[in-house]
């Protein structure tokens, strides 16, 4: 569906995959959570519906990944992205401006959802902070970033302390092995580690194991990891450390 809004820009929803990918590749700050492949994983088996919106302006294009949930024909929520699926927000082939984001927020407020949530890429936070009206509830988040643009050798020599480098060398000498992959079997190994961690945590907190496992599967369902590995392919790697044949 195409809409002309306030004479400033045109909104198209859902966006075509080719256009989305083109804008994504042009945005130097874009993350995997904002890619069309990530949305394809989220919408696997109808868990979410792709309601992403493409905004075309005289100066360029911007796209908001938006995942929709509905029930009995009623549009319930739209999120960019839903809880547990990372931060998203806008990707754009031009630097974002406050007026543009403000216009997009106004467009979102006209949509027929009971709830709309946007967790923008942390690098976009100042623009969104200035553009979002006070009627929206704002939740503070903290994002940790590691600058690797100078390469691994600089990170190893200058960013890590001597003590940490020593611990890594000792782990290697002691036989700790790190593997990576994305096959269904590898995803299952990773998820089994998650459930094992859940069980250990439940025991320390004296929680019933069945309850802890139910909460863990609800919070981080297996389908999400299976779908992500399938849709992202070689763009996704899961790392697992093992010691004496035991995943750790």
Describe this structure in words.
The protein is of the alpha+beta class and 248 residues long. Helix content is 41%, strand content 21%. It has 9 helices and 12 strands. It has helices at residues 17-26, 36-42, 98-109, 125-131, 152-159, 162-174, 184-205, 209-219, 222-232, and strands spanning 2-5, 9-12, 49-50, 53-57, 60-64, 67-71, 74-80, 91-92, 115-118, 176-181, 238-243, 246-247. The protein has a 5-stranded antiparallel β-sheet, covered by helices on one side. The chain has a 4-stranded mixed β-sheet with strand order 3-6-7-9, with helices on one face. α3 (98-109) packs across α4 (125-131) and α7 packs antiparallel against α9 (222-232). The model has no long low-confidence stretch (mean pLDDT 90).
Topology (SSEs and partners):
Blueprint: E1 2-5, E2 9-12, H1 17-26, H2 36-42, E3 49-50, E4 53-57, E5 60-64, E6 67-71, E7 74-80, E8 91-92, H3 98-109, E9 115-118, H4 125-131, H5 152-159, H6 162-174, E10 176-181, H7 184-205, H8 209-219, H9 222-232, E11 238-243, E12 246-247
Parallel strand pairs: 7-9
Antiparallel strand pairs: 1-2, 2-4, 3-6, 4-5, 5-8, 6-7, 10-11, 11-12
Helix pairs in contact: 2-9, 3-4, 7-8, 7-9
Total helix count?
Answer: 9
Morphology call: globular
Rounded radius of gyration (Å):
21 Å
Distance between the termini: 49 Å
Q: Largest sheet, described in full?
A: 5 strands, antiparallel
User: Which spans of ≥5 residues are poorly predicted at pLDDT below 50?
Assistant: none
Total number of β-strand segments?
12
Task: Encode the helix/strand succession as letters.
Answer: EEHHEEEEEEHEHHHEHHHEE
Helix content estimate: 40-55%
What integer is the average pLDDT? 90
Give the class from helix and strand content and strand pairing: alpha+beta
Estimated share of beta-strand residues = 15-25%
Q: State the strand order across the main sheet.
A: 1-2-4-5-8
